[in-house]
Amino acid sequence: MLTVQKFGGSSVADAGKIKRVAGIIAERARDGGSVVVVLSARGDTTDELISDAASISSEPPKRELDVLLSTGELSSVALMAMQLAKMGLNCVSLSGRQAGIMTDVNHGEAKITNINTDRISRELGAGRIVLVAGFQGVSENDDITTLGRGGSDTTAVALAAALHADRCEIYSDVDGIYTADPRLVTGARKMDAIDYEDMLRLSLGGSQVLHSRSVAAAMKYGVEVWLLSSYVSAPGTRLARLDGRPDICGITRDKALSRISIVGKGVGRRTLAEAVAALSQHDILTLSADTGDGVCELTVEPQHVMPAMEILHKQFFLSLSHSK
To answer: The whole model's pTM is what?
Structure first.
């Protein structure tokens, strides 16, 4: 069994967290399967590197900025390899280039065009855990490129597709996908499974658990993804193509736009009318509203976003039993 695992920056932010994640990786490897691990830069490393670049130049060359930013993920995989080696596990760290991740030439927002899996396959054949630096690749010009926001998620899904992995696991600081952000909305419920289309709309609406580019890649290649927690042992949420989808799946927000999105296959004009009415009963004015295929969007005053999230979640999920 081949598993691709991805761990975000907050999961490997310091030595203690690296040790915890190494335990998760080791457990999977000791189950007898092959493991490929994609890692993001630790904690705030990427922001710090961008700040370093800004201290030198207000407009650094995009090629050189990509070279600089790629070092964050390289640091993560090297440190994780050291931790796993200390635990007696056979492993190897690879840059995006060494892992065969080819991209276009669009620095800062590159797209993966192909993955040559020869090196990874050789390392797996030798019984090694393979640690791949996420967020990066190499262009046809032999230049280092970075993939932009959600790049490590996209790397993991693309590798799972290219390697025909049996399982793709994305670990973060939450234990799955909820009907709303459980840190912000009272009574948010975790879903056992979610369809690609619903997850894509939630991601586009502001959900930060999984970037829309990685969701689109999973949908394109039919990669089933398990969204899990780095901190607690829980079943998580399975992302796949589902036969049964709930009429209303979830509610999310785009903080920058003060926009709330309600997502689900049954969402339409009636949903929008109910949402506007529910908000008006609490003296919250809807500044603009629109509905499309499987989503409706409402804009409110910035100070009303969180109260509106609570009101709408109660309106649509208080007595709703989700399909599993």
So the answer is: 0.89
